[in-house]
């Protein structure tokens, strides 16, 4: 890297993809929340389930994953420790939102005597929820990695790779479940599936996963 080069060439691709990611994420989240507000059905448990799941996976967890990307323009000046701390805070908020969303839906189905986790959306979402909890636990272990090393002779790289794999899996499956759920919600709320929204969600999720997948398979 030359003296006049602020951003290394190998990070410019990430800078472009992260720029596209943030634009698409803003469009998707704002449009989805606007549709919910337009329908004014906040008294429904189902609406709160959709809202909290969208905020949890499509916004907070997405940004937590993006925090670890080298091209994230919002955090270029932040060090590794600061990024890790902010990543943990965002994941805590995302996990809380997802937990609340799942709990509300379980209560909604129990009150209406409906079966739990019988659809593709429900099954994939539940698996994603479990992986989210495991990933969050892995993040806590990484935060106290020195204590973990005293208890068991485990190389930090293995713990970090496991945490990354669980995080990628939880995020990807959460988005897949969200796509199934939003497809049904859009059909009920606006009488058409709004496939464009689903495409936007899938596109910016793919862009966001480039960095984490690269880190997962790097030495």
TrEMBL record:
Keywords: Electron transport, Heme, Iron, Membrane, Metal-binding, Transmembrane, Transmembrane helix, Transport. The keyword Transmembrane helix applies. It is found in: Membrane. InterPro entries: CYB561D1/2, Cyt_b561/ferric_Rdtase_TM. It is a multi-pass membrane protein. One of its GO terms (cellular component) is membrane. GO terms for molecular function: metal ion binding; transmembrane ascorbate ferrireductase activity; transmembrane monodehydroascorbate reductase activity. It holds the Pfam family Cytochrom_B561. Its EC number is 7.2.1.3. Its cofactor is heme b. This is ascorbate ferrireductase (transmembrane). It comes from Dendroctonus ponderosae (Mountain pine beetle). The lineage of its organism: Eukaryota, Metazoa, Ecdysozoa, Arthropoda, Hexapoda.
């Amino acid at each position: 890297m030359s003296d006049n080069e602020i951003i290394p060439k190998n990070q410019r691709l990430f800078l472009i993809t992260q720029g596209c990611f943030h634009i698409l994420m803003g469009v998707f989240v704002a449009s989805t929340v606007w549709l919910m507000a337009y329908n004014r059905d906040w008294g429904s448990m189902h609406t709160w389930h959709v809202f909290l799941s969208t905020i949890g996976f499509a916004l907070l967890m997405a940004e937590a994953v993006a925090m670890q990307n080298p091209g994230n323009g919002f955090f270029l000046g932040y060090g590794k420790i600061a990024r890790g701390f902010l990543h943990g805070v965002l994941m805590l908020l995302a996990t809380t939102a997802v937990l609340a969303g799942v709990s509300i839906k379980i209560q909604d189905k129990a009150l209406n005597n409906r079966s739990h986790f019988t659809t593709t959306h429900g099954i994939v979402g539940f698996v994603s929820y479990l992986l989210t909890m495991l990933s969050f636990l892995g993040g806590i272990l990484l935060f106290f990695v020195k204590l973990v090393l005293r208890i068991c002779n485990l190389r930090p790289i293995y713990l970090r790779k496991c945490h990354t794999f669980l995080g990628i899996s939880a995020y990807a499956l959460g988005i897949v479940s969200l796509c199934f759920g939003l497809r049904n919600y859009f059909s009920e709320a606006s009488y058409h599936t709004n496939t464009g929204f689903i495409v936007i969600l899938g596109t910016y999720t793919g862009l966001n996963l480039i960095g984490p997948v690269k880190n997962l398979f790097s030495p």
